[in-house]
Amino acid sequence: MRFQSRVDENALALFIASRVLTGENQYWRDGINHARRWFKETGGLDVPYSEMVGEERNFPLGKWLSDRRSEHSAGELARHRVEMLDDLGMIWSVSDARFEAGLDWARVWAKGHAGSLAAPARASVGGYAIGT
Fold first, then answer.
1. Which long-range contacts (CB under 8 A, 24 or more apart) does 93-100 make?
2. Is the pLDDT of residue 116 over 80?
3. What is the dihedral of CA 27, 29, 35, 36, to 10 degrees?
4. Beta carbons of 31 and 61 less than 8 angstroms apart
5. Are residues 21 and 79 in the same domain?
6. Residues 54 and 115 in one domain
7. What is the total count of domains within the chain?
8. How many CB atoms are located within 10 Å of the residue 130 CB?
9. What are the tens digits of pLDDT across the range 66-87?
10. Burial class of 96 by CB neighbour count within 10 A (0 to 12, 13 to 18, 19+)
11. 122 and 131 in contact (C-beta within 8 Å)?
């Protein structure tokens, strides 16, 4: 564990004894297991940031995945963990994934409109707001 300032040894012992602290490895296992479940149920890891999962809806899966993206971009995520997330189709760049989805829908629009991408502002394809 790392702390930003000096920690009272007695307080730390009390926290550990009462299991208030969750070990980093346990938090990882919880996160990857929830990610696997989400993937199995939805087919992807496009998880909203605020999504809470689990029996009691107390695990922040969206935030957990976002934190893994941050670690990955900083080069701090272990290779074996990157591979585990890659196996589930991890979206490392949400903005790139959204852009690619937009391109896919633009192709659908163009195919149905003689190759034109001139869509009215309110146009949509498959529920995607292609006009905007």
1. 93/69, 94/69, 97/46
2. yes
3. -170
4. yes
5. yes
6. no
7. 2
8. 21
9. 999 999 999 999 999 999 999 9
10. exposed
11. yes
**Mean pLDDT, residues 92-108 taken together:** 86
Q: Which amino acid is at 94?
A: V
Q: What is the 3-state secondary structure (H, E, C) of 58-106?
A: CEEHHHHHHHHHHHHHCCCCCHHHHHHHHHCCCCCCHHHHHHHHHHHHH
Tokens standing for residue 46? 């496009």
Kindly report, residue by residue over 40-52, the tens digit of the pLDDT: 999 888 899 999 9
Query: Do 21 and 65 belong together in one domain?
Result: yes
Q: How far apart are CA 118 and CA 21, in angstroms?
A: 55
Q: Which 3 state secondary structure label does DSSP give 52? A: strand
At residue 20, the pLDDT reads: 55
The CA distance from 52 to 68, in Å, is: 16
Helix (H, G, I), strand (E, B) or coil at 114: coil
The answer as to whether 2 is a domain residue is no
